[in-house]
Amino acid sequence: MFTPITGRSVLVTGGTKGIGKGIAAVFVGAGARVTIVGRDHTVGAQAAAELGADGGEVAYVCADVGLRADTERMVAEAVDRFGGLDVLCANAGVFPDTRLEDMTEQDIDSIFATNVKGTMLAVKAALPALSKSAHGRVIITSSVTGPITGFPGWSHYGATKAAQLGFMRTAAIELARSGITVNAVLPGNVESEGLTALGPEYREKMEASIPLRKLGTAEDVGNAALFLATDEAAYITGQTIILDGGQTLPESLLALEAQ
Ligand code: NAP
Fold first, then answer.
1. How far is the CA of 94 from the centre of ligand 1 (A)?
2. Radius of gyration of the chain (CA)
């Protein structure tokens, strides 16, 4: 049994949809006070209402993690509302697909702005508040794509997801002084609005390539994030947890067929 995290203040960037919303739901279920962040105000306000429907304390802040002023404001609002900040889930991310030959400079700048710069700005903005917490945690949502695997159309995305881990390893050393741990979750294919937008064929083929034969859920990712936020995980830093149903294990199609 883990020590309850009831009452802790948790900020989830990209918490208005998909995986981030699932992470937020798991923390709300554990009694945390949760601030979710996204750029679409209507979607964000609706998500906060849904997440708080059973009496949980949930606030929404409209912010773009690619903008320093927005990240500072989102942290300030979480601190004002819930009296501090204990956990930052740097989850906001985008995954447009474009092959290298068609990729524009703007495509590269835009994906790095949210996935890499957005992660770093969010962590930087949260540092003063996390340093004051006795349980400071940063949990980054990376991916298997980039750090472990590749997929045509996602070279820029894979680069951003690997970059997050490069950032994490040095941040974990620097922030250890303040007692803050920095870890990452690496989902495989997880049910989300973003994944649904890739179409039914993508989903079907992905399911067939996963030894557990199903996509992950946002709750699966949320449970891993919750574990990393517990007191019992206080000695884990600079590490990754892969959640992919075994997708990165088979060395070939034969390995799957021989299952
Ligand atoms: P999603 O359903 O499209 O949700 C993305 C969330 O991030 C939304 O809340 C979105 O809200 C927010 N967001 C995007 N850009 C933002 C920005 N610049 N500033 C603030 N918020 C922003 O995507 P998802 O599938 O849940 O993905 C979430 C994370 O998991 C990403 O980092 C992604 O790389 C990672 N991931 C996903 C999968 C998967 O299979 N789904 C697998 C591996 C890793 P707004 O659009 O309103 O801003």
1. 5
2. 18
Please name the helix (run of DSSP H) or strand (run of DSSP E) that holds residue 72, with its range, or none.
helix 68-82
Sequence-distant (6+) residues with CB within 8 A of 154 are 95, 97, 145, 146
CA distance 33 to 6: 8
Q: Tell me if the pTM is above 0.85.
A: yes
163 CA to middle of ligand 1, Å?
16
Which among 17, 248, 252 is positioned nearest to 146, based on CA atoms?
248
pLDDT of residue 192: 83
Residue nearest to atom 44 of ligand 1 (CA): 143
Low-confidence ranges of the chain (pLDDT < 70): none
Q: Map out the domains of the chain with their CATH numbers.
A: 9-191+218-247 (3.40.50.720)
The residues lining ligand 1, judged by C-beta closer than 6 Å to any ligand atom, are: 13-14, 16-20, 37-40, 43, 64-66, 91-95, 114, 118, 141, 143, 187, 189-190, 192-195
Q: Are 64 and 91 in contact (CB under 8 A)?
A: no
Tokens encoding 51: 């997440």
Q: Nearest-CA neighbor of 144 among 193, 223, 209? A: 209
Q: What pLDDT sits at residue 41?
A: 98
* DSSP letter, residue 24: H
Catalytic residues: 157
CA distance 108 to 157: 9
Residue type, 231: D
Distance CA 159, CA 244 (A): 19
